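Risk register update: the risk of archive-format incompatibility is retired. Evidence:
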Amino acid sequence: MNWFFIALTAPFLWVLVNITDQYLVKKYTDGKRTSGALVLFSSLIGIFGAIVIGLFANNIFEISSIDKLLLIITGILSIVWIILYLFTLEIEKVSGVVPWFLTIPVFGYILGYLFLGETLNLSQQIGSLIILFGVAILSFDFSNAKQRRFKWQVALYMIPACFIIATIGVIFKYVTVVDQFWVSSFWVYVGLGATGVFIYIFSDSYRCQFLKMIKKGKTKIVGLNVGSEIASNVGNLLTNYATLLAPVALVYLVGNFQPAILLIFTLLCTRFFPNIITEDMSKRVLFPKIMSIVIIILGSVVLLR
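Archived output:
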């Protein structure tokens, strides 16, 4: 069962990334749609990634121009979903945002069926419907005991974000063969870094937010962002390694426990470290959230059967 503990480490690392994102948004941004600094941090890291891969990978220019263009587009799309995700963190607690990412396989199956000729079996169809039902519960605001309000802004941001992530995966799979993984990754990072440079030059608001955040947080901001990127990438590597030791479906199923792990972490932080992150611990808010996460995990079990 060594693979299980390796796979389980990844969602713990991703949870730390999610908490760091929420902390940075709340601590170092000024309100709605002011996460430009974090967007630039995420995009400019692409320059570093492209340089590192370019130094060690071979034949990075020996793919077709169409493939290069498609991969660069995936890098650009990566910034789009990050922007939508950060916008959501400005209006919703992270424990209510992360479960939305479990809709990505649903969109992935649909896109794979339409464009890659992949088929949807009965379990995948039922699992997808269960996941969507769980997310639907999560989309309502239960803080008001007398009125249930649909969180339309959260849905407006996260549905396109998750669809874009699934689209990125389909494009990457369409373009990439096994022995060209790092070559494809290089061009994705090129698109990511180039988008960051474009935003820095042409978006006065994002550039000002970026410089303001660095001035305000200095080494703390840089350290948190670098640490977050490292944790995210280590989590990805651990997941990939675990797939070599166990069936892919089982490894991804372990990763789908991320929302539950995140909720536990946020509750602990609320109790012991409220300056980092807080969670509404009232029963009328917490119970539907727990129920939604349980339903989504059950849907994931069915989806990956």
